[in-house]
Design a protein that fits this description.
- The structure is a single chain.
- The chain has about 55 residues and is mainly α.
- The protein has two helices and no strands.
- It has a domain at about 25-54.
- The radius of gyration is 19 Å and the shape is rod-shaped.
Amino acid sequence: MVVYNSIRYSFLSEHEKRQELLELDKRFAAFEEKIANIARSRRDRDLTTSREHR
């Protein structure tokens, strides 16, 4: 991913690069969890709605 390369090839120290990459991984994981929860909520809502219309 471009965003990872922007950190890897930056002028930060190796320690700072590691820290930034770890932080980026955490932020991506949180984002993916948030999106998964939204999708799960919509799926559950749609299932409930379809059952109510039977």
